[in-house]
Design brief:
globular; about 350 residues; mainly alpha; two-stranded antiparallel sheet
Length: about 350
């Protein structure tokens, strides 16, 4: 019996050691990412994005966008053209442009279907166009045409004077506008739209607010996303903005960075925050990994390693999933974060 217990403890030690080492070792990291891509692309091909749509307001769009972006960024980091990755991204884009993906968004809005849909779809389309992977896409013309249409929607909407565009009729979210701004080719429009976003915020810290309903409310998850977008566009005051955000929301424990969802540290949670435990939000903490990795903060790897351990990953038969295969949206966020570290 003692031998069995020793073997069991030894296996657990090896398991948790490999989980922690994954982001620090190139082979383990690439294996982890590739196997996650295999798993997530397989379940989305089988229609799991439709099930996510029933759980989250934008589940179909968000799941396909995160998978496509992860594959694009991973292929760029590996400097490889891979037909498997091309096929995954092409299929994600086809699903993003489907009637089912647009069903939750009104065609009567400006821009048509709103900022969440247009922002995330064009984020995928523009990232794909910039990548080496795009050369082997089977839907190049569709990608170019669709991106041109969305950029034209943005320019037409902002033709007279920049203002913040709605995600749904009568309501906007700054993070959705930020995603759209990242995709712009017009530098002047980008600057004017970004200035409008900053000028609309009312929090003393200077951080951009979470929702139009309260220009003084900031949240950990959206602040992490907005900071990442600023990193993507090489914002000149990025270091200051990141410090302001971290001072309010981020607590560090021996390099492990946990992010409060609410400024007051409360456990209030909603569809945007995901689970909140002891004031720390799951979505905010994982999004912060990607944000800090973009800023070359080495703590991002430590935090991802810790999340990799506590989420009990199963990595077998070229597939990797978390939380006993129960929450693939968590898997998508972890994948999107991992391609940045």
């Amino acid at each position: 019996m003692k031998k069995i217990i020793k073997y069991f403890i030894g296996i657990l030690f090896i398991y948790f050691s490999l989980c922690f080492a994954t982001p620090f070792n190139t082979y383990l990291r690439n294996r982890s990412i590739d196997h996650q891509i295999n798993y997530l692309s397989r379940i989305l091909d089988k229609g799991y994005d439709n099930e996510l749509q029933s759980k989250f307001p934008e589940g179909k769009v968000f799941s396909n966008a995160l998978l496509a972006l992860s594959v694009i960024y991973f292929s760029e980091k590996k400097n490889c053209n891979n037909e498997k990755y091309n096929a995954i991204v092409d299929k994600c884009i086809i699903r993003l442009q489907s009637i089912e993906a647009r069903r939750k968004f009104s065609s009567q809005m400006t821009p048509k279907y709103g900022m969440f849909y247009n922002g995330w779809v064009n984020y995928v389309l523009t990232a794909y166009q910039k990548s080496k992977l795009f050369a082997n896409s089977k839907i190049q013309n569709e990608v170019l045409d669709s991106s041109s249409v969305i950029l034209e929607r943005f320019e037409r909407a902002q033709n007279n004077e920049p203002y913040l565009l709605d995600s749904y009729i009568g309501s906007y979210w700054p993070a959705d506008n930020m995603i759209g701004i990242v995709t712009l080719k017009d530098a002047e429009l980008r600057k004017n739209w970004l200035d409008t976003l900053f000028n609309s915020a009312r929090h003393d810290s200077g951080l951009i607010h979470h929702a139009a309903s309260n220009s003084n409310e900031i949240r950990g998850s959206s602040s992490a996303m907005i900071t990442y977008c600023l990193c993507e566009m090489d914002y000149e005051n990025l270091s200051y903005y990141n410090n302001q955000y971290k001072n309010i929301f981020v607590d560090s424990y021996l390099g492990l960075e946990l992010v409060k969802e609410n400024e007051d540290g409360s456990n209030h949670m909603d569809i945007d925050s995901g689970p909140v435990v002891w004031g720390y939000g799951a979505s905010a903490t994982i999004m912060n990994i990607k944000t800090q990795a973009c800023l070359n903060n080495t703590n991002a790897k430590i935090t991802w390693a810790a999340m990799n351990i506590i989420s009990l990953p199963i990595n077998v038969l070229n597939n990797k999933y978390y939380l006993l295969n129960k929450e693939p949206m968590f898997d998508l966020f972890m994948l999107w974060a991992s391609v940045e570290i």
